[in-house]
Write a structure and sequence with these properties.
By secondary structure, the protein is α/β, with parallel strands linked by helices. It has one domain: Carbamate kinase (3-Layer(aba) Sandwich), CATH 3.40.1160. It is 40% helix and 19% strand. It has a nine-stranded mixed sheet with strand order 4-3-5-2-1-6-10-11-9, with helices on both faces. A two-stranded antiparallel sheet has the order 7-8.
Length: 234
C-alpha cells in the first residue's frame, strides 16, 4: 500500500523517553531522522505532536486548575514540542513549516488548509501545533481534524506499543495484538486507541489509522512502505 500524503501523530510522552518530563534530545533527533527518511521517498508528511511530556489539561484539572485554562496550557505545551521538532528537522536539512491553531506569530504561521497543502506539495514537512485551538479536545482529535482537512490518505499514530491489543500489553502479558480492526469493533470492545471524539471523527470521514511503535528506529519507513507492522484501523 502506498500513500501520497500522511498525517503522523506523535506522543508527547514518548519525547520524554522514560524521563517522565521534558524533551529527550536523542529521542527527538531520532524522530526527525525517521521523518527525513520518509520525505526522501517523496511522501508528503504532516505532523501533530502531543504535549503530555510538559502539561496535560485533564491532569491539571485534577490538580485544581480551571479545566479551560488547563487545556490552553496543554495547547501551549504542544507548541513547545512542535518548535522542538521543527528545530530538529531544520538542523538535518529538512524544510518544514510550523502552523498554530491560534495566532502566535512569529512563533508559527496561523493555520490555513490551503497554505498547509501548498507547503506539503512543495515538499516541506508541515507541523501543526496547538491542537484544534479549542479546549476540551485532545491532540488525537486535533490530528484527526487536520488529517481530514488536508486530505491525507492515512493517520499514522506513533505510540510506545506496536499496535492495538485486547488489553494494555504493558499491564497484561496475555493481551493479544490485532493486525486489523474496525472502528465498530473498537467501540464494542471499548479499546482505547484514541479518545471517542477522535475515533468517531475518523470513522465518519473514512480516515484510516495505523497504530505502530514509533520508538523503534526505522519503523516509520517500514509502515509507509507497506511492511506489516502495527495495527490497521478502518
Amino acid at each position: 500500500m502506498s500513500y501520497k500524503r500522511i498525517l503522523l501523530k506523535l506522543s508527547g510522552e514518548s519525547l520524554a523517553s522514560g524521563k517522565g518530563y521534558g524533551i529527550d534530545a536523542v529521542r527527538l533527533n531520532g524522530y526527525a531522522a525517521q521523518i527525513k527518511d520518509t520525505v526522501h521517498l517523496g511522501i508528503q508528511l504532516a505532523v501533530v505532536i502531543g504535549g503530555g511530556n510538559i502539561f496535560r489539561g485533564i491532569g491539571g484539572a485534577v490538580q485544581g486548575f480551571d479545566r479551560i485554562k488547563g487545556d490552553q496550557m496543554g495547547m501551549l505545551a504542544t507548541v513547545i514540542n512542535s518548535l522542538a521538532l521543527s528545530s530538529a528537522l531544520t538542523a538535518i536539512g529538512v524544510k518544514n513549516d510550523l502552523f498554530t491553531a491560534v495566532r502566535m506569530e512569529p512563533i508559527g504561521e496561523f493555520y490555513s488548509k490551503s497554505r498547509a497543502i501548498e507547503r506539503l506539495e512543495q515538499g516541506h514537512v508541515v507541523v501543526f501545533g496547538g491542537g484544534t485551538g479549542n479546549p476540551l479536545f485532545s491532540t488525537d482529535t486535533g490530528a484527526a481534524l487536520r488529517g481530514i482537512e488536508i486530505e491525507a490518505n492515512v493517520m499514522l499514530k506513533g505510540t510506545r506499543v506496536d499496535g492495538v491489543y485486547t488489553a494494555d500489553p504493558e499491564k497484561d502479558p496475555s493481551a493479544v495484538k490485532f493486525a486489523d480492526i474496525t472502528f465498530d469493533e473498537i467501540y464494542r470492545q471499548n479499546l482505547r486507541v484514541m479518545d471517542l471524539t477522535a475515533t468517531t471523527l475518523c470513522k465518519e470521514n473514512k480516515f484510516p489509522i495505523i497504530v505502530f511503535d514509533m520508538d523503534v528506529p526505522g519503523n516509520l519507513l517500514k509502515v509507509v512502505t507497506g511492511q506489516p507492522i502495527g495495527t490497521f484501523v478502518h
